[in-house]
Amino acid sequence: AQSVTQLGSHVSVSEGALVLLRCNYSSSVPPYLFWYVQYPNQGLQLLLKYTTGATLVKGINGFEAEFKKSETSFHLTKPSAHMSDAAEYFCAVIEPGRAGKSTFGDGTTLTVKP
Amino acid sequence: GAGVSQTPSNKVTEKGKYVELRCDPISGHTALYWYRQSLGQGPEFLIYFQGTGAADDSGLPNDRFFAVRPEGSVSTLKIQRTERGDSAVYLCASSFGTSGRVGHDEQFFGPGTRLTVL
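Above: the input entities. Below: the C-alpha cells describing the complete assembly.
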C-alpha cells in the first residue's frame, strides 16, 4: 500500500526566509505527486503537481517542488516566505492506474514569523 | 464561478442515528470524490465516482457507509448507525474527469462537513 510521510508536523520560519516542507512517499511505481494548501476555514487548494516530464515543477504563489525518484521525495520549497503563506500543507500521491484515489500525508502547518 | 459546495457545514448527531451529507460539484465535472479527515491527519480517501457509478469504493470503512450519485451531479454520503469514531470532517472534491487524465486531474475541494457524533 502506498504511504506518504511529511517530516515535521509544524515548521516555523521568519518572513523572507526559505521555506522547505518535506514529503517522502512509498510506492512500487513512480506515482503522480501533488501539494495542496489549506488556509483556515477554506477548502484544500492545489499548489502544484508532478505527472511526467520535467522533475522541477513550479506552482502558484512562488512555490516549487522537485521530484527525486532515487530519494522517493517531492519536497516543497519557496525562496522567501511571506506572512500570507501561513497555512497547512498536504502532500498527496496517486498511483498510476488507480485514478482518483489520492493518498495524503498528515500535513505540515507552516507558521511565518514577522 | 461557483465552487464545490457541501451541506450542512456542521452536523451534530447522536450515536446510532442515520446521517446524510450532500455534495454539489462544480458544473460539468464528471468525477467526484469523498474523503474523511480526522483531527491532525490528512484526508483519507473514501470513494470516487465517474459519472453515476462508483469507480472505486475501496476506501469505505464498512457497510455502514454508502454513497450515491444518481444523476451524475450531486452526491450524498450516507452513514447508518453512526459511531463516535465517525466524527470527522467529510470532504468532497470534483474534477473534469477527462478520460486518460483523471488520474492526475486537479481536484477542487469543498469546505467540508464537520460531523460530530455524541
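Note for the figure: Chain B has a mean pLDDT of 92.
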